[in-house]
Design brief:
The protein is α+β, with helices and mostly antiparallel strands. The chain contains eleven helices and twelve strands.
């Protein structure tokens, strides 16, 4: 099994663990350690260099620098249905669990191709910790992917930054695009730490930048919202462990039209405000 040396005693710490089995010193989270391995860092650096060369040839060096800086300040957003959001806020358990932990507690699969194949896809990208990961996306404007639910939940950076890694795109789509099959190793250079998320965004999206762009134009480049999951494009955030509702910074969504849903939404707004989160109703 893959391992890293303990930061205190030097013993081998399996990538499946966040604690040294010898001295019990806490280590970085497995997904973060994978992202910070020298081979990943070097491969991403090569991609960044290619992006810089390409941008320079097109006279876009300054624009690329602005884009990298802007996306380096991006936030993590999760989208939820009203029912899922309300359940998270009203439950006696404040933790939002990963899909696989929810399955252990009885969550039924939805029957879609995505649910059927997600174990294989996610295990290929994060083989040592996929069962523990919650998923979000990077956003510059506080809005998320409506396909996953009409309510965009932005998370407080302080609650996720140490346990979040950044990945190029949805693992299911990535594996298809890069011909990753069972037993093969994904290509390097497509993941990074939270602190270096801007660099990965620049490496991925530099080809979509133009000389006429201003800062407000960067948001739809970072997150391309379309009607179906397979058509959406975004940079993923992989968060190790449950997400506590105290970590919600803001929620943006449309006020429901149905009377019953308006009651649920009103209760959710009250709970969010008690948590200190901001709420924005959009038309």
């Amino acid at each position: 099994m893959a391992s890293d040396p303990c930061t205190k005693c030097g013993s081998d710490v399996p990538l499946s663990s966040a604690e040294c089995p010898v001295c019990s010193r806490q280590q970085s989270f497995p997904n973060v350690r994978m992202a910070e391995r020298a081979s990943e860092v070097a491969a991403l650096a090569a991609r960044i260099q290619q992006a810089e060369v390409s941008a320079a040839g097109l006279g876009l060096t300054e624009i690329l620098g602005q884009f990298v800086a802007a996306t380096g300040r991006s936030q993590a957003v999760m989208n939820r249905s009203l029912g899922a959001l309300s359940g998270w806020l009203s439950s006696s358990n404040p933790l939002f669990l990963s899909f696989f932990r929810q399955r252990e507690q009885g969550r039924p699969p939805d029957g879609s191709e995505w649910d059927e194949q997600r174990l294989a896809a996610e295990a290929a990208i994060n083989p040592y910790c996929y069962t523990e990961l919650n998923y979000a996306a990077l956003t510059l404007d506080g809005s998320g992917m409506p396909y996953y639910g009409p309510y965009s939940v932005v998370l407080k950076e302080i609650t996720i930054e140490d346990r979040a890694s950044i990945f190029e795109e949805n693992p299911f789509i990535f594996n298809k695009n890069h011909h990753v099959i069972a037993g093969s190793t994904p290509p390097l250079g497509y993941r990074t730490s939270w602190a270096r998320r801007g660099e990965l965004c620049g490496a991925k999206l530099h080809g979509k930048l133009t000389a006429q762009m201003k800062a407000p134009d960067f948001a739809p480049i970072l997150m391309e919202r379309k009607g179906s999951e397979s058509d959406c494009d975004f940079v993923e955030v992989h968060i190790y462990g449950p997400v506590n509702r105290v970590g919600i910074a803001s929620v943006r969504g449309v006020a429901p039209k149905r009377a019953g849903d308006r009651i649920i939404w009103k209760q959710a707004v009250g709970a969010l405000k008690k948590l200190g989160a901001t709420v924005e109703e959009v038309s």
